[in-house]
Amino acid sequence: MRIAVAGATGVVGRALVPVLRAAGHHVTALVRDPASVDADAVLTADALDPSAVRAAVAAARPEILVHQLSALRSPTAFESTARLRREGTASLIAAAREAGVRRVIAQSIAFAHAPVGALVVDEDAPLYLDAPDPGWAMTVGAVADLERQVLSVGGTVLRYGALYGTGTQYSLDGPFATALTRGRYPLAGDGAGMTSFLHVSDAAQAVAAAVESAATGVFHITDDHPVPASSWLPSFAARVGGPPPRVLPAPMVERMLGWPAAHQMTAQRGAANTRARATLGWHPSRVPEWTT
Ligand SMILES: NC(=O)c1ccc[n+]([C@@H]2O[C@H](COP(=O)([O-])OP(=O)(O)OC[C@H]3O[C@@H](n4cnc5c(N)ncnc54)[C@H](OP(=O)(O)O)[C@@H]3O)[C@@H](O)[C@H]2O)c1
To answer: Relative to the CA of 33, which ligand 1 atom is closest?
Structure first.
């Protein structure tokens, strides 16, 4: 099949392009900087420039358009990613409609649920649109907007768990690991908040499975072992040679690390992957070392 990947230079995109090519697909990378992408074709467009996106998607003539855009490395990570989720998605969807793309497959997140009900939830659980933190409420609002747009064209939404592996926030040599090594990442409160992790290579395999499947809708793409912070944070610290994290009251951790980190450690829900396993025929093949 002809597939176009927006975000082909990202952490997930770089893992994904070779997987799709190895499966025999013709992959066009839609990028801002063509310097370092190994794809069958490379086209340049800024996702926030609708006419450039329209021209690139028309030239790529994809049957499937994969959306892996995020701006989480930007200094204005939350604002810029929210803008990409709203406006970048709108550009891609408009271009996909015009070019007669059969299906859009887009990245979302599996940790935007409201902290109500079960500790591990399915795709029908409510999103935290009324989160008390304005930055997180904006993020969740943009996530909901992206999902609405993708579903409006019969697309597939893959909600990734917390990504780990090379180049991610949770890589063993990344800034998070460094903070733990230096004893600078405390555990908030009782650490009952749940995290569902996902290795980057399992994210790439999930996109490949979604390409092959006729199924549409929303899927949690997460590993099999949602874990509370009280368990995974000390394990991660030990794995990177750091001291056991200090336990501090949640409001103090919120002041130190910000609301999202305190929320993750105290109230976040895990995300069950049952639907993706049953419907997409995908399953995670990796288990994070710090949850075993
Ligand atoms: N589920 C999760 O935990 C989750 C989800 C998303 C991200 N993250 C974290 O965020 C980090 C990055 O992961 P990622 O692969 O999602 O993001 P990434 O590696 O930053 O990749 C983002 C992609 O979007 C592209 N992009 C950004 N703005 C664009 C624009 N205006 N127009 C066109 N392309 C644009 C980037 O292109 P350029 O190369 O040109 O910048 C890049 O290809 C990791 O640390 C990861 O752990 C986590």
So the answer is: 40
What pLDDT shows up at residue 292?
A: 63
Cβ within 8 Å of residue 120, ≥6 positions away:
194, 196, 226, 269, 270, 271, 272
Q: Where are the alpha helices (DSSP H) in 153-185?
A: 175-181
Do residues 170 and 176 touch, judged by C-beta distance below 8 A? yes
Is 77 close to ligand 1, i.e. is its CB under 6 Å away?
Answer: no
Give me ligand 1 centre to Cα 107, in Å: 10
- Model confidence pTM above 0.90: yes
The residue ranges of the chain whose pLDDT is under 70 are 292
Residue 80, burial from CB neighbour count under 10 angstroms (0-12, 13-18, 19+) = middle
120, 270 Cβ separation under 8 angstroms: yes
* Binding site membership of 73 for ligand 1 (Cβ less than 6 Å): yes
Please write the tens of the pLDDT for every residue from 154-196: 999 999 999 999 999 999 999 999 999 999 999 999 999 999 9
